[in-house]
Each structure stands twice: as structure tokens, then as C-alpha cells.
């Protein structure tokens, strides 16, 4: 008995701490692969983190503050070997909508997001994510990619004072394009376009090398592997080269580029998240005021963060043949955000691009995230003075190349082919997201919800005549269906002359509720008053139990349709 209890306790411990499932099997081969993968992802994460902080409207160091905690927390609590947590384009865009460039608001948002996500995990509320349909997700990601990508044109062109709202952004970007002709702006344009060219070239090179055959000689394979590795860390290469060019120009007295500028140096202090803020004029913004200002972001950002991360984890677990625990993933993300708020991070989630790099470089366990976290910490400790010289145009190029794959033109075509009505939530989400991102998501979810409710309230009912009337239901009988079912019964059986007997085939009905039972009671009374019968057939045991307990007047049922038809035929005669 004690041994069984011990096994149960250990199983529960492994469920709460997934590190215990792989750590006993850890070996030197895994260590080697995790070091390579973690280093590669780290060299990708640093420039992306700097760039995504720009999207969120925060100083660039906050991107790095957000990029290291996930590696340490997820190693202990995560269930996917491939996924990497950190700042992403979509989360940065969502945060920008609510924090207004204020780091204090960002940190409070991180803390509250983490608490909400961890609370959802403890209460097993992950099923709520199932109500966000795939067309809504695709509509949102496509619109977000367009918004983020276009928003970086101002840095490529070196334009200033461009509003954040998308439609105003489009107008003022084209309105101020003539400004790009001045000497300072020309430098940004040339550098930005060069960075874009090299990033696209390296991406195409990586894709072509990845699909090449391994039948070549060893020397050729080694060269391809080296080129593939260089193409994988293309973001870091481009930012380093662009920074070198900008530094050379600055020290020779040529101010040709818009630079990132002064950044805070060193590691972020580990301290409790702020619960209030004092602005320049001495006004104190209390915690409750911050929460009110964050408003709908406290619902949208936690849900979208979890949705994005779990979708990525499921995709790579399927590809690499292992299983994840969605509820444990929810808890890991929540705890990462809670702990991240102690180092001034803004909300994070799983990154598809960095997870793909992690998987392709052969990571064997979540320990690769620790190596990535160390790379980010080393950057914060020693490289922050150099970040002053990073051109904004190079970071903009990194962002544009990172979000461009999110624009998938195949989605509308696939939706049209599979189910045209699913284009509606996709288009609503896509269109409204250009106005306000959160309204786009809410609008898409509402439209999808109405479509789902309509299917529930108006299930397909096949009406046929076999001497007696036969109604075949294809789904559960729940309260929204009652009016529809009653209308059909009255139309085809009770309001005809003479009234007809009815056979109700419930073979596909797996659930029933009180409202339906009440309506069936009224229908059976109407059949009895008119001297005809209604017989049920194909009832599942659970449904039959409910109907028998309701003590319906004149209730009769058979197991098979043919038996019911014979019974009704004999009643008619």
C-alpha cells in the first residue's frame, strides 16, 4: 500500500515538475546538442528582443529583460523540448496598444498576465481557448503582420513623428516620404534596404540548403552546414555588421543614421514589481488606476499569449513525436510572466521563429533554454554600451523579415474551398484589427460564437415519409433547439389533416436538458389530444434514463427504427 502511495506521489511530482521526466536520462550527447541549439537561438533572440521592444514602444533593453527568464522557468515546468519563450511580434503589438510606452504599465501588465494564466491553469480553464477558432487566429495574425511590418517603414525611411494608429500611420508615412531625401534619411533608407536584401538572401539560402540532399562529399556537406548555420543566425550577423557601419560613420563625424541611442547598462535589478507610479508633475498613479487603464488588455493579452504558445508547442510536438500537457504549458507561461515582472519584463509567449530554429538545430531537452538565457544575460552585462550604435533601420529590417511569413495568402483560398462561411470571422477579424487589434479579436470571436450557436439552435433534421412521419435528428437536444423542433413537429404532424403519427429517431442524440423535456411533455399531450402517437427510437442509455425519470405522459420507445415503424403502422390500422 505504501509503495502504491509512493508511486502516486512521484507521478504527481513528475506531472507538476516535468524536468523529472527527462533529467534522469540526460547525457553528454544531449548536453552537446542543447549547447549548440541554445547558442544559436540566443544569437537569434538578442537582436529580435531589441527589435520587438521597439514594436512595444519601450526602450530596447526591456526586450532583453523579457528574453531570459523564460529559458530558466520553462526548463523546469515546460513539457515541450522545442519551444522557446520570450518577446514576440504579436505580443509586442498587443502590449503597445495598452501600455502607452510606459515601462511601469508594462511590468504591472506582465505580473497580472502571469497571475491570470497561472490561475487558469490551476482552475483547469484552458478549454476557454477552444472558443477562439482557427479563422479568427489567422485573421488576427495576418492583420498583425501587416500592421507591424508597415509600422517599421518609418524606421527604414528615417521618418519621425508618425502616429501609432494604423490608418493615420499609412497616411502620414506617405505624406512624409519626401523627407527621406535629406542626408540623414538617405543613410537610413540605404542601410535599411541593404539589411532587408541580405536577410531575404540568407533566408532563401537557408531554405535551399535545408532541402538539399546529403549524398554530396563530406567537404561539401560541411560547407553547406556552415552556410546553413550562418544563415540561421542571420539576424545577429546583419545587426552586428550594420552596427559596425554606423559606429564607423559616427567616429569619423558622419551622422548618417538614426541610432537606438542611450540604453540602461547592466542586468536589471531583481525587485518586486511596482504597484504605483509617480509621473513628472508629481501625480501618483495608483495600482487600481493602472489596472483600469490596462482594461481589456488583461483579457486579450493573457489569452492570446497562451493560445500562441500552446499552438506552437502542439505543432512541434506533433512533428517530433512527443506529447505536451496543455494545462502544464499554461502554468509554465504564467509562472514565467510572474517571475519576469520581478526583472522588469513585458509579457512573453512562445516564439514560432525561434522555436523552429531550436528544433532544426537538434535540441534534445528544455535545457537549451538555459543556454539562451545565459547568452541574453551576457549581452545585458557586457554589450549594452555597444547597443547605442545599433541603427533603427537594421532592427526594422529584422522585424519586417520576422513577420512577413505570418502573412499567409493561402488561408482565404483554403477557407473558400473547405467552408465559405468561415471566411466571415476571418475577414471580420482581419478588417477590424486594423482599427484596434483587440476589437478585431473580439469581433471574430463574437461572429464565430454566433455561427456556433446557430448550428446548435438549428441542427439538421431529416424529414421523411414511411407511411408514418419520420424525423431524424443529427445532434444533441438542448434548449435552443426546442422552438425549432416544435415548429417542425406541428408543421408536419399536428397541423395537417388528419394529424399524423410521428417517429422521432434519436440515434445521434447524446444529451438532453430540462427545457427539452418540458417541451416534449407538451408535444406528447398534443399528440394524445389528437388521437395519434409519437414514439422515440434509438435512445442512448443516458438520454433514456433522463426521459424515464421525467415520467412523460404516453412515452413509448423502441430500440430500432423498423420496430417503431411496425408499431406505428399497427396503431394506424
Automatic annotation (TrEMBL):
Q: Where in the cell is it found?
A: Apical cell membrane; Basolateral cell membrane; Lysosome membrane
Q: Which organism is it from?
A: Carassius auratus (Goldfish)
What is one term from the GO cellular component aspect held by the record?
basolateral plasma membrane
What is this protein's record name? Sodium-independent sulfate anion transporter
Question: What membrane topology term does the record carry?
Answer: Multi-pass membrane protein
Provide the transmembrane region boundaries: 35-53, 59-76, 105-123, 135-153, 183-205, 297-317, 329-348, 368-388, 395-417, 437-457
Q: Which UniProt keywords apply?
A: Anion exchange, Cell membrane, Ion transport, Lysosome, Membrane, Transmembrane, Transmembrane helix, Transport
Residue span(s) of domain STAS: 467-573
A Gene Ontology molecular function term for this protein is: antiporter activity
Role description: Sodium-independent anion exchanger mediating bicarbonate, chloride, sulfate and oxalate transport. Exhibits sodium-independent sulfate anion transporter activity that may cooperate with SLC26A2 to mediate DIDS-sensitive sulfate uptake into high endothelial venules endothelial cells (HEVEC). In the kidney, mediates chloride-bicarbonate exchange, facilitating V-ATPase-mediated acid secretion. May function as a chloride channel, playing an important role in moderating chloride homeostasis and neuronal activity in the cerebellum.
For this protein, the record's InterPro entries field holds:
S04_transporter_CS, SLC26A/SulP_dom, SLC26A/SulP_fam, STAS_dom, STAS_dom_sf
Q: Which gene encodes it?
A: LOC113064754
Q: Is DNA-binding set as a keyword in this record? A: no
Q: Which reaction does it catalyse?
A: hydrogencarbonate(in) + chloride(out) = hydrogencarbonate(out) + chloride(in); sulfate(in) + H(+)(in) = sulfate(out) + H(+)(out); oxalate(in) + chloride(out) = oxalate(out) + chloride(in)
Q: What is its main location?
A: membrane
Say which family it is in. Belongs to the SLC26A/SulP transporter (TC 2.A.53) family.
Amino acid at each position: 500500500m505504501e509503495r502504491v502511495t509512493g508511486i502516486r506521489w512521484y507521478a504527481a511530482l513528475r506531472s507538476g515538475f516535468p524536468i523529472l521526466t527527462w533529467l534522469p536520462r540526460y547525457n553528454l550527447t544531449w548536453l552537446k546538442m542543447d549547447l549548440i541549439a541554445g547558442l544559436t537561438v540566443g544569437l537569434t533572440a538578442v537582436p529580435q528582443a531589441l527589435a520587438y521592444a521597439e514594436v512595444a514602444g519601450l526602450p530596447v533593453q526591456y526586450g532583453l529583460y523579457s528574453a531570459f527568464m523564460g529559458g530558466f522557468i520553462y526548463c523546469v515546468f515546460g513539457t515541450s523540448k522545442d519551444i522557446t519563450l520570450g518577446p514576440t511580434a504579436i505580443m509586442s503589438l498587443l502590449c503597445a496598444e495598452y501600455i502607452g510606452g510606459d515601462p511601469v504599465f508594462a511590468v504591472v501588465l506582465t505580473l497580472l498576465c502571469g497571475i491570470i494564466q497561472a490561475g487558469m491553469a490551476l482552475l483547469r480553464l484552458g478549454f476557454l481557448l477552444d472558443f477562439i477558432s482557427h479563422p479568427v487566429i489567422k485573421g488576427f495574425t495576418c492583420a498583425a503582420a501587416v500592421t507591424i511590418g508597415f509600422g517599421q517603414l518609418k524606421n527604414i525611411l528615417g521618418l519621425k513623428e508618425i502616429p501609432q494608429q494604423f490608418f493615420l500611420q499609412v497616411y502620414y508615412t506617405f505624406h512624409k516620404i519626401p523627407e527621406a531625401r535629406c542626408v540623414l534619411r538617405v543613410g537610413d533608407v540605404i542601410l535599411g534596404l541593404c539589411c532587408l536584401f541580405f536577410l531575404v538572401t540568407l533566408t532563401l539560402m537557408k531554405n535551399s540548403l535545408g532541402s538539399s540532399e546529403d549524398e554530396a562529399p563530406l567537404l561539401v556537406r560541411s560547407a553547406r552546414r556552415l552556410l546553413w548555420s550562418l544563415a540561421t543566425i542571420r539576424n545577429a550577423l546583419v545587426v552586428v555588421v550594420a552596427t559596425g557601419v554606423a559606429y564607423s560613420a559616427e567616429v569619423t563625424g558622419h551622422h548618417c543614421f538614426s541610432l537606438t541611442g542611450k540604453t540602461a547598462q547592466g542586468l536589471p535589478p531583481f525587485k518586486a514589481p511596482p504597484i504605483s507610479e509617480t509621473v513628472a508633475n508629481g501625480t501618483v498613479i495608483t495600482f487600481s488606476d493602472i489596472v483600469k487603464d490596462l482594461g481589456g488588455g488583461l483579457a486579450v493579452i493573457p489569452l492570446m499569449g497562451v493560445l500562441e504558445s500552446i499552438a506552437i508547442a502542439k505543432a512541434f510536438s506533433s512533428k517530433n513525436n512527443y506529447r505536451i500537457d496543455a494545462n502544464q504549458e499554461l502554468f509554465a507561461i504564467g509562472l514565467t510572466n510572474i517571475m519576469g515582472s520581478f526583472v522588469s519584463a513585458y509579457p512573453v509567449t512562445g516564439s514560432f521563429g525561434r522555436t523552429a530554429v531550436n528544433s532544426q538545430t537538434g535540441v534534445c531537452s528544455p535545457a537549451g533554454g538555459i543556454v539562451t538565457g545565459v547568452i541574453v544575460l551576457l549581452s545585458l552585462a557586457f554589450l549594452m554600451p555597444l547597443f547605442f550604435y545599433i541603427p533603427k533601420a537594421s532592427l526594422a529590417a529584422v522585424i519586417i523579415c520576422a513577420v512577413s511569413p505570418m502573412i499567409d495568402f493561402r488561408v482565404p483560398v483554403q477557407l473558400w474551398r473547405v467552408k465559405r462561411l468561415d471566411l466571415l470571422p476571418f475577414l471580420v477579424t482581419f478588417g477590424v484589427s486594423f482599427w484596434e487589434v483587440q476589437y478585431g479579436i473580439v469581433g471574430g470571436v463574437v461572429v464565430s460564437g454566433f455561427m456556433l450557436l446557430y448550428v446548435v439552435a438549428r441542427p439538421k433534421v431529416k424529414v421523411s415519409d414511411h407511411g408514418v412521419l419520420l424525423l431524424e435528428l443529427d445532434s444533441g437536444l438542448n434548449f435552443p433547439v426546442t422552438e425549432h423542433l416544435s415548429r417542425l413537429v406541428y408543421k408536419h404532424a399536428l397541423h395537417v389533416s388528419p394529424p399524423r403519427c410521428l417517429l422521432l429517431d434519436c440515434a445521434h442524440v447524446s444529451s438532453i436538458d430540462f427545457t427539452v423535456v418540458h417541451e416534449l411533455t407538451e408535444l406528447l399531450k398534443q399528440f394524445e389530444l389528437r388521437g395519434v402517437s409519437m414514439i422515440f427510437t434509438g435512445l442512448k442509455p443516458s438520454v433514456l434514463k433522463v426521459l424515464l425519470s421525467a415520467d412523460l405522459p404516453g412515452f413509448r420507445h423502441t430500440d430500432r427504427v423498423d420496430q417503431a415503424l411496425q408499431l406505428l403502422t399497427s396503431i394506424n390500422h
